[in-house]
Write a structure and sequence with these properties.
By secondary structure, the chain is of the alpha+beta class. It has 15 helices and 29 strands.
Length: 623
Amino acid sequence: HSTHFGNLRLSPLGTRRRVRIMYAATLGAPRVTATLGATRRVPGLGRIPQASARALVPVRALGSLSQPRVVAGRKFVARNNDAPGIHSAASKSPASWTRAVHAKRGSQNINTATAPNDVPRVVDSPKSLKKALDGDAEILSICVFGASGDLAKKKVYPAIFALFYEGHLPEDFVVFGYARSDMTTETFVDKIRSSLPRRVSSKVDCSEYVEKFLAKCFYQAGQYDDPDDFKTLATAISEKEAGKSAMRIFYLSIPPSIFVPVAQNAARHVSSLSGETRVIVEKPFGRDLDSSRELTNALAEDLKESQTYRIDHYLGKELVENITVLRFSNIIFSPLWSRTHIRNVQITFSENFGTEGRGGYFDNYGIIRDVVQNHLLQVMALFAMEEPASLDAEDIRDEKVKVIKSIRPIDMANVVLGQYKKSGDETKPGYLDDETVPPGSRCATFAAMALFVDNARWDGVPFLIKAGKALHKREAEVRIQFHHAPGNLYKKQLGATSDMNSNELIIRIQPDEAIYLRLNSKIPGLGMRLDQTDLDLQYKAKFGAGELPDAYERLILDVVQGDKRLFIRNDELEAAWKLFTPVLNQIENDNINPELYPYGSRGPIGAHYLASRYNVRWGDTYN
């Protein structure tokens, strides 16, 4: 017999039949939990079929799966001894349908259903769910511009390979590399072969997958400002697509100075004629407000905002994405997340190495443009934003923009700049010892500042931001320090530094990802002695010893699926540059000299004075 509930009818399925993919009609109806296979009882619905997994999808109307039926342009046919078959009922189906896309995140196997408005909806479902592209594309074509560079070799190609290895890419895909270097596809393939299994080979031998992946990789040499070279590239890609409808993704792994000609030529001459075209733009997005506007306007001549994905790889890190989950899905934190209970917030980024030959590039931007204005400001916006109306990309980015616009103009009195010099034992070189750095450069390799969000939630709470190179350790974290407990009940046991024994919530972004809560507790034994104890969630201990997906993997997969939550919108970029351009101009116009600090130290002394001004101690000084 068939089971009915609402307007959904489920035909009985044999125990050996599996649901490989599920399409739903237009969104808008109530959510229905449908478990297929054996039966289980669902409150309010009676007994329904159940299989080894559960799928939660928005459903408006589906007829009996045993009869052919067209829903939102797709035909559903239930076949004997097999999963419900799915056949296209039209060459171009409307956008009003939901597709379940297989996606693994970390150690979890999840499925992301890409909705018409590009809202990712995470659902539980069996591993047998079929991978699918967003829209009607039959083949995915990725083109990496600047393919001969370090970023492409060390990050982009390994990320695409990891997605292929873990089954996130469709069976039919090609990857083209484009650069000025004159080489053949065979030479290029040999060049990237060793870097591909950077993450996945530590546990398994993936040489077979490497060769399968490289068979889908091709190289095309050409100039970045020659339209004819781009037309040649388009012809080469079309030959591999063999007339199939294609989604094309362009990754601009190139210097900012050539963003515009490459993006324009690619959009004009290499865009897909049978499907969508999406363009990934790497930071930095300009040097100041004016240059950022010029870049945005130039890209807008040939690309819609919906096609442009401004990537900030920091937003793809596991713990950054977990900030909003931690806050909005755990009721214990909701009433604490404000000035009433939080004394200060520290967002820190430190590297234990210097520029190491990249001084020429770094000197043109400095630590504020390279790290603070993008990475750390984005983390701050995610932390401080109000709860969005939904997980829709636009709702989330709307709230982030509100936070950035509410930040008080930066006062130079709340800014400390530093530049590293030789280490105390003179074994490590100073910044000016780098041959690629201009002599006498005043470029800051360290910056600390106090920012304030002038709204009702965060009024008066200092957000202390710190970033630097050549420091004592490599670490990035968000540290929330709460007010100390009122009253004097344990003042004797805590001592005069009770403010320093307040509760802390620490989100360690890298390395050794973790979340821990610092509490005061009694030391076991006779008497009353107190000490601080950590309630510690170590990701490796909880979710396995395997490496977490690289940020580039997550972000490239999001581009394929059309999910823009972790990408920067144009008005968000505009607000960020409006905040930082005045202070950057003041630093450069006044020729402010950075304070020197030894390579391998905790940074300039001025940063500690800045923190003490707000009765704060940097977390890395006692932990």
